[in-house]
Amino acid sequence: MGYQEGPDVLPPSAPPPPAPSGYQAPGGTYGGRPQRTNGFAIASLIFGIIGGVLFGLIFGYIALSQIKRSGGTQGGRGMALAGVILSWAWLAVVIIVVTSQSGS
């Protein structure tokens, strides 16, 4: 009557289980296969920075598609998104400049 017995109940004299030691990566394993950055993502970012609108958009959308289908083996989603966003921004600037020039 002093304590309950069962698979989930520890006897009162048992010490607590040891704390986990060290950092363990999400997924429960150390190391593993490193993510490789998608080349189209890098190209998209570069073209987005320098104003290569057409290539930035094409490479960016290809990169996003490949990264999504890779199942986590490819990285660079942020670079691809940045390249696409910068390319759209460049396109907007070009359209604004062209329309303002034709109006004067």
- Specify the helix fraction band: 40-55%
Estimated radius of gyration? 27 Å
Which series of helices and strands comes N to C? EHHEH
Low-confidence runs: none
Structural class: mainly alpha
Strand tally is 2
Q: How many DSSP helices?
A: 3
What can you tell me about this protein's structure?
There is one protein chain. This protein is mainly alpha-helical and 104 residues long. It is built from 3 helices and 2 strands; from the N terminus they run E-H-H-E-H. Strands 1-2 form a two-stranded parallel sheet. It is elongated.
Task: Write a brief structural summary.
This protein has helices at 39-50, 53-69, 77-103; strands at 36-37, 74-75. By secondary structure, it is mainly alpha-helical.
Which SSEs are present, and which pair or pack?
Layout: E1 36-37, H1 39-50, H2 53-69, E2 74-75, H3 77-103
Parallel strand pairs: 1-2
Helix pairs in contact: 1-2, 1-3, 2-3
Short descriptors:
2 strands; two-stranded parallel ribbon; elongated; mainly alpha; about 100 residues; about 55% helix
